[in-house]
Amino acid sequence: MKNTIAERIFDFLKNFPPFDVLEKEQLFNIASNVKVTYIEKDSFVFRQDELPHQNFYIVKDGAIGLYRTMESDHILIDICDEGDIFGLRPIIQNDHYLMSAKANEETVLYAISVEILKEIIKTNEKANKYIIASFSSNIKTPYAKTNNGQLFANVNSLETNNAFSEVQTAQYSKNPITCLKNATIQEAALIMSDKKVGSILIVEDKKPIGIITDKDLRLKIATGIISIDKNVSKIMSFPVITFPEKITIAEAQIAMIKHKITHLCITKDGSPNSELVGILSEHDIVVLHGNNPSVLIKELKRSKNVETLKYVREKSAELLKGYIEQNIPITFISKIISEITDAITIKAIELSITEMKTEPPVKFSWLALGSQGRKEQLLITDQDNALVFEDVSEENYQKTKNYFLELSQKITEKLHFVGYEFCPADMMASNPKWCLSLSEWKQQFNSWITKPTEDAIMLCTIFFDYNFVYGEKELVTKLSKSIFKSIQSFEIFLNFLGRNALKNPPPLGFFRQFLMEQDGNHKDQFDLKSRALMPLIDAARLITLSHNIKDKNNTISRFHKLAKIEPQNKDLYLSCADSFKILLHYRTEQGLKNNDSGRYINLNTLTKLEKLKLKGCFKPIKDIQDLLNIRYNLAQMM
Amino acid sequence: MFNFFKKKKYPEYWQKHINAVKNSRNYSNYESIRFVCLDTETTGFDYDNDRILCIGAVAIKNNKILVSDSFEIYIQQEVFNKETIKIHGIRRNGTEKKVSEEEAIIQFLEYLDDAVIIAHHTKFDITMINEALKRLKIGPIKSKQLDTNFIHKKIAQGNWFKKLFSLDELCEIYNIKMHDRHTASGDALLTAYVFLKLTFKYKKNNVLNLTDLINTNYYLNK
Questions:
Q1: DSSP alpha helices (H): ranges in A154-281?
Q2: How far is A30 from A113, CA to CA, in rounded Å?
């Protein structure tokens, strides 16, 4: 019998992997057994931790967001649109869903029975490889479509131990060593030596209430502060941080960094009030792969020379590459990479201070500027930094300044050696213009704000995104206060800043085509930085400044904060944050691919889909620029 | 005389159809109801002289369109109309395998089973089918029927004076991509999409049940 409907579904499926490698009869068999479902916006297809359905899904029309709930945050991991498959791994591995799938817009799905696919996998080698490869990546994003192809090609290398497995569920120790809360410290220590472990959990009714590690014994017992016949509760750390069994390695790492701990308790439902089922230590993760951010930071802390810094820096570049390939959310990546960059800088400063003949004469602080200040620097670029030191009497001024200039010289040279090249515009603390006392800085900012020339505005956009890295934080707090005071007494400055924000060239022309650079070295390439990223960065900075928000320097967190402050514009700000994430991820990916800054893109290398994704990010740019235009009366100023 | 009519023996397939609908236990639970979205292509719009060329149908159960449970049949015809060929594209001697009208009806009723029929302008398709049944000395069809037009009218805001919406208009309103328009199976599938979206909207305030849905037909008679 003729089957027009199945033929149409066949025609749709054949365009997408893995269906494109199936035999015609195999695919027709799948097509004629499809179930079509309609999902309303914001309805769930399935929820995290649910048992797997009988079917996996392919998006026909619309878009499905995959969310992972971590603590109380719902993190958007991926968006599936036309032709994307989801919900396959759990049914093949007979595991719970690790994420929730929710319709971001109204969506039509084709549900495909896993039994038919299993049958086909058995006989079709190519399809089988594709599916294994897509499990290893586990998370894929639509704007990195090319990854699917790469994975397919690299199927052999994936079978060997993949160093970057953050999205896999972490393997934890299933039989944690425990003792009861009425045990003495000595009893606990004996159990630990007997079982040859470095930590012991204190339990009550099978629930974890505290933990003792080797470190506690060393710091609190061996030093004689507390006697060994005291109760374990005297030295245990509590409360413990608990997670459910399905924790991924990335989540574990972030939790350890966030809470500055080395052990996580795994409990039945993830809360501290349920039964203990295991323990996940930093060591468990290190065993999984040596390239671990917390290990790198530890290595930094112990390092005694600049060569180690260089080594760690190179390692972190590898880490970045792996993260991008794995499509780890960009907010996690930037958090970890900037953490490492800061740690490298701090160490460079410490090493430089020891090289100086004397201790710093007064308190000072080291500031990171620009993208490093915003914690958005993923690819290694040139350094932008500044130094502020405490006010000193006039006769001591020159001597003090000379000391800090010499120190800065040493620091910037070290950073240069590590790989952060000297800033071509000399925006570095070693430049006498940017190594100033607190009052000088206050004055400098005040003059930029009250006399907003083009140059002044340009410098503001760099210096306003400063971030305290090392030294006396109080100096920076004072500086921030003074800057906001200056802005408040000279509010028209914000309008100038707004005008500057709109000066970025638009990404798309009237006919929605990409606008390319007209001349210069990058003729006919697309300038991702100034046409797409800068407008968002500038807008976020301007609006947070206007709200007097001092502690938000990062573009994504600025937009999130703004979404809370101005609920009427929540959707716009959140879509700006999303666009920024995608664009930053994209730039980093391009930079890694071409071994450059990722700023200029050759459009011919993009697939149609990639271009569509990029264009999708431009809509919020236009919307936020319209908002600036109205809010700061810019039409009148232009 | 009266007895003579009562004893009249129906063909087995027709008796089966009557029993299937009468004895079905599936109607009370929405999840277990099998809906069949159907569309017919005909030689024209005259109930007396025009004939069915093709019946296309696809089933819906528990809010899922089951492609595996679909139906498509082409009927050999004497009546032929040059005008409508432009619409449906079925030629007298086309390549599709064609069967007699009786054979088509037998297969269709077998496929239909106890399903609730959904169509767009159901009255037209059902009348065409009933006319065919009449030629076989049986009918009219017993299945419960729904019309996407009237479900839409029940939930739609706005233009109450507009009597009927075309399938194209509903696809436009409910943002459904159209393809294979004016093939029986294609229109049946579009009708199925429309029905899924309609019932989702309909469900928002009410729990779905068949009686409510059938009551939307009230507008049919008004």
A1: 155-159, 185-195, 214-216, 249-259
A2: 8
**Contact state of A111 with B64 under an 8 Å Cβ cutoff:** yes
Q: How many CB atoms lie within 10 A of CB A49?
A: 16
**Residue A413: its pLDDT value, please?**
93
pLDDT band at A166, cuts 50/70/90? very low
Which residue in this structure is represented by tokens 């800043």?
Answer: A497
Q: What would the pLDDT profile of A541-557 be if each residue is shown by its tens digit?
A: 999 988 888 778 889 99
Average pLDDT estimate for A464-468: 87
The Cα–Cα gap between A350 and A339 comes to 16
Lowest-pLDDT range of A240-254, A412-426, A490-504, A576-590:
A240-254
Distance separating alpha carbons of residues A576 and A599, to the nearest angstrom: 19
Residue B204 has a CB neighbour count (10 Å cut-off) of: 9
Chain B CA closest to residue A30: B68
Of A33, A61, A106, Cβ closest to residue B67: A33
What ipTM was assigned to the predicted interfaces of this complex? Answer: 0.83
- Distance between A62 CA and the closest CA of chain B, angstroms: 11
Q: At residue A47, what are phi and psi to the nearest 5 degrees?
A: -115, 155
Q: Residues of A with CB below 8 A from B74's CB?
A: 2
pLDDT over threshold 90, residue A229: no
Chain A stretch 11-50, residues whose beta carbon is closer than 8 A to a beta carbon of chain B: 31-38, 40
Q: Do A38 and B189 touch (CB under 8 A)?
A: no
A129 vs A584: CA distance, rounded Å: 31
Whether the Cβ atoms of residue A369 and residue A441 lie closer than 8 Å to each other: no
A-chain residues near B183 (CB < 8 A): 4
Query: Chain B residues with CB inside 8 Å of A8's CB?
Result: 179-180, 186, 189
Closest CB to B72: pick one of A1, A36, A111: A1
HEC string for A302-355: HCCCHHHHHHHHHHHHHHHHHHHHCCCCHHHHHHHHHHHHHHHHHHHHHHHHHH
Q: In terms of CATH, what superfamily is B2-221?
A: Ribonuclease H-like superfamily/Ribonuclease H (3.30.420.10)
A108 touches B: beta carbon within 8 Å:
yes
CB B108 within 8 A of CB B73: yes
Domain positions in chain B? 2-221
Q: How many CB atoms lie under 10 A from the CB of residue B140? A: 12
pLDDT value, residue A131? 64
Structure tokens at A76: 């958007």
Q: What is the rounded average pLDDT for all residues in chain A?
A: 81
- pLDDT digit string, tens, across residues A450-459: 888 888 888 8
Backbone φ and ψ for A632, nearest 5 degrees, come out as -105, 20
- Measured between beta carbons, the chain B residues lying within 8 angstroms of A63 are none
